[in-house]
Structures are given as C-alpha cells and as structure tokens.
Backbone:
C-alpha cells in the first residue's frame, strides 16, 4: 500500500513539474472547443401526435356480413414501412426538401439524412404515435412533419381501399372463370343425358326401379289377359246354350212364351203373393189387392200380345225382329266386348314385353352410364358450390367497400398538430461546453503526465531500486529571487487554471440567461 502511495506522489510531483502544460493544453482545447460549440447551428424539432382509432362502430354490426381486416396489424405494417424509399422521396417532394439538392449525390445524402432525422414511436400506448423531425430551419421541420403525417394517413386509408378494389377485381375474374366452367359442366350433363336418354329415364339409380315397374305391369297385364280369356270362354259356352229367337210366329195364335213389358211385374207380384199366402188367408186385404193387380196385369199382357200379333200380320218383317231373343243378343254383345278386351290386353302385354326386353338388354350399361353421370354431377356440384361461395365473397367485398366508403375502419385523430418550433431544441450547448472543459483539463493532465514520463526526474530513493544508493543530500533553501519566481509561477498557474473554470462559468451563465430571456 505504501508503494502505491509513493508512486502516486511521484506522479503528482511530475505533474507539478509540468503544470503549465496542463493549463496550456486546456486553454487551447477549451478555446477551440467552445468556439466550435458556439458555431454549431441551432437545431429545431417539430413533432406531432396522432391517435389511431381502430374500433369502428360498424364492426360488430357487420360481423359475418363483410370481410373484417386486422386494422392493428395493418397500422403496425404501415409504421414499419413509413420510412421506405418511395415514402421518403414523397415526403421530400411534398415538403420541398428536395429543392436543396442540386446533384444526385446531394439528393442521396438528403434522403439518408431525412431517414436518420425523422422518427416515429409509440407515445405511451399502442394507438398513439408520435412523429418528430429535427432540422436547421424551423419552417422546414414543420413542413416535413406535415408531409409525413399526411402520407401516414393517406397510405393507411389508401391501402385499405386498394385492397378492396384488388379483391373485387380478383373475385370478378374468378367468377367469370367459374361461370364459364359451370356452363361447360351443364352443357356436358345435358349432352350426356341426351345421348343416354333411353338409359337415364329419370334420376340416377331409377333404371332398376323402372325395370321392376315394367315387369310388374307386364305381370298384371298378363293376369288381366288370362282373366279376360276365361270370361270369354265362359260367355261363348253360355251363348251356345241360348236360342237366338223365340219361335213365336210359327202359328197364328199368340204364344205364351212371348215376353212383354208386363212379365217382370207379374212375376214380382206373384212372388209377393206367395209370401203373403204363407202368413194370411185369401180374404186378407193385401192378398185380395195383389190378386186383383195380378189379374189386371195379365189382362193387359194378353191385350199386348194380341196387339203384337195383329201388327206382325199386317207387317211380316216386324215379326222377325219381335221374334229375336234379347238375351241371346245381349250375350252375343258380351262375347264381342270380351273379344275386344282380350285383343286390347294382348296388345298391352306385347308392349310391356318389348319394354321389359329393351330394358333387360341395356341393363349392363346402366352402372357405367350412371357412374359417368355421377362423376359429371360431382364436378358440377363442386363448381357450383365454389361459384356460390365466390358470389358470397364478392357480396361481402362489396359491402366492405361500401362500408369503407361510408365510414373508415381506421380513423386518425391528430392530438398535437405539427407546429413551427420557436426555440431550438439542440444542440445541448451546456453539456457540450461542460464536455469540452472536462476534456481540455483531462487532455492537459494527460500531456503533462506523458511529458513527465518521457523526461523523468528522480524525486525519491524508491525510484532507483536497481541502483545502490549510499546516501542523499537535501535541497538547500532557495534564494529570495528564486522563491519569488516560484511564487509567481504558482500564481500564474492557478490564475490560468481557474481562468478556465471562470470562463466556463461565464459561458454557462450566459446560456442560462439567454434561455430565461427567451
């Protein structure tokens, strides 16, 4: 520890020996530095604060109907790209900063300086941004901030509208393409159905149902034909057992077998009389009434037969018609009707047989045709679904564009507009004066210490460890003139040393006074 103290004392003595180098170097550096700081041009900073409102009132109302963009991400992207080369050139043109550049090199340096001096930062919260620019001219500083703020707002809003336009154009192109593909698919399906219409009768998969239906119809028609044939055979057998005529006009007297319109009534009344006879006697009023009515109808029947006989005698041709058996004629008509029905059913059966045969011949083509149709329909459905989805997206884009034109999703509110700075914001001369003063004194000490080491002087025996020291003598007291000279040198040193500090203090006082007056 003692060695360190001794070494420090030696350095101090060396500095004392070269003390005038300290103040000399300090004065030179301080004067030059103070003058340079004084000559530095004033720097004026203009700033602005803007609030970016991304919470639009239409967003919750239009959710699901329009395309919702990430406004915060868009703002962060614009902040990062604000100082791109195109934007910086636009700022320089709008603020007339490019007028100062006469050559390409000057223009490039101006762009680089603009990028360096211009800054944007978040001002305490994410939605508030602060713009700042420092220039030698206060008017230019304000102009640059105004241009930057305008570009920041225009680019953000313009990008949103440009994106909507680009999306709408893209969707229109895709819709045209899908519409063309949809029409082609519909045309292919139509042509395929026309070419295979005999196989694809109805929806896909109904061919087998159609075949079963035709087979069932064929079976029903065959059963009806069999039944009709059976009825025809029965009618023909009944027709053989019936006489075509009554044979009434072979004698001149009426035949009892001749039928009239009274025969049925007489038979019905006789049946009723038989039933009443089982319950009552012949004297019962109802029995007497029926007996009287039957006798009247028989008299009328006999009169009718006599009248018919007289007519046939006067007109022989009428006898043949009257002698015809109506039952026989009815049975003959029934046979004719059944023969027509059998022929019609036979035609129907033949038709169904041909249809069944035709369907059975093409049944092996059905799976292949239906598979092709399913493939065509699948492609058509996919294209149609995409087309409908694109229509929905285009409608959303249209609503988004209209909503964007009506009210912006991003709204800018300028909190602090750019103003012309009245006082310079830099350079910070007090700190620079202080640094120059400190650096001058430190440089002086360093130069003095260096010179003391270059031309060393032995102040103590401890400085000669490698040499044998047999003794030392002390310095005799100096003469009066030498003492006065030493005092004068010390006074001069302290005067110069404190003079540096006094001048520094005066400069600092002037700086504070000028700021207070301003």
Residues:
């Amino acid at each position: 520890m003692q060695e360190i103290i001794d070494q420090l004392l030696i350095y101090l003595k060396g500095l004392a020996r070269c003390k005038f180098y300290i103040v000399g170097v300090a004065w030179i550096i301080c004067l030059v530095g103070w003058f340079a700081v004084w000559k530095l041009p004033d720097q004026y900073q203009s700033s602005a604060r803007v609030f970016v409102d991304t919470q639009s009132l239409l967003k919750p109302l239009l959710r699901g109907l329009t395309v919702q963009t990430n406004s915060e991400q868009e703002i962060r992207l614009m902040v990062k790209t604000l100082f791109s080369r195109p934007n910086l050139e636009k700022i320089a043109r709008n603020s007339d900063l490019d007028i100062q550049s006469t050559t390409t090199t000057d223009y490039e340096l101006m762009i680089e300086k603009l990028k360096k001096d211009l800054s944007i930062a978040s001002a305490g919260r994410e939605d508030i941004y602060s713009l700042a620019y420092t220039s030698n001219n206060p008017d230019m500083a304000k102009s640059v901030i105004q241009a930057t703020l305008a570009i920041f707002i225009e680019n953000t809003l313009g990008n949103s509208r440009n994106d909507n336009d680009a999306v709408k154009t893209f969707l229109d192109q895709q819709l045209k393409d899908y519409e063309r593909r949809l029409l082609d698919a519909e045309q292919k399906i139509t042509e395929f159905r026309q070419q295979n219409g005999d196989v694809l009768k109805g929806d896909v998969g109904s061919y087998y149902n159609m075949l079963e239906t035709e087979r069932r119809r064929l079976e029903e028609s065959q059963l009806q034909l069999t039944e009709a044939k059976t009825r025809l055979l029965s009618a023909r057998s009944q027709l053989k057992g019936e006489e075509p005529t009554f044979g009434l006009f072979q004698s001149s007297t009426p035949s009892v077998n001749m039928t009239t319109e009274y025969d049925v009534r007489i038979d019905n009344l006789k049946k009723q009389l038989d039933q009443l006879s089982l319950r009552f006697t012949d004297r019962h009023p109802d029995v007497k009434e029926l007996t009287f009515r039957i006798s009247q109808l028989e008299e009328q029947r006999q009169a009718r037969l006599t009248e018919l006989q007289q007519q046939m005698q006067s007109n022989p041709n009428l006898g043949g018609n009257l002698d015809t058996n109506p039952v026989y004629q009815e049975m003959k008509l029934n046979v004719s009707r059944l023969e027509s029905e059998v022929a019609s059913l036979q035609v129907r059966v033949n038709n169904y047989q041909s249809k069944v045969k035709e369907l059975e011949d093409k049944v092996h083509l059905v799976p292949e045709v239906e598979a092709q149709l399913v493939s065509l329909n699948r492609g058509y459905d996919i294209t149609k679904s995409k087309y409908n989805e694109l229509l929905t997206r285009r409608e959303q884009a249209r609503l988004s564009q209209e909503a964007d034109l009506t009210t912006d999703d991003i709204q800018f509110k300028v909190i602090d507009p750019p103003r012309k700075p009245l006082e310079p914001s830099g350079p910070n001369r007090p700190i620079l004066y202080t640094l120059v003063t400190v650096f001058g004194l430190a440089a002086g000490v360093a130069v003095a210490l260096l010179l003391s080491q270059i031309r060393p002087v032995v102040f103590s025996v401890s400085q000669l460890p490698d040499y044998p020291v047999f003794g030392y003598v002390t310095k005799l007291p100096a003469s009066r003139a030498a003492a006065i000279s030493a005092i004068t040198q010390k006074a001069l040193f302290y005067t110069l040393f404190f003079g540096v500090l006094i001048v520094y203090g005066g400069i600092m006082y002037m700086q504070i006074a000028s700021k207070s007056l301003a």
In short: Strands lie at 44-53, 118-122, 128-135, 411-416. The chain has three domains: 1-40+428-518, 43-199+407-426, 245-324. The radius of gyration is 66 Å.
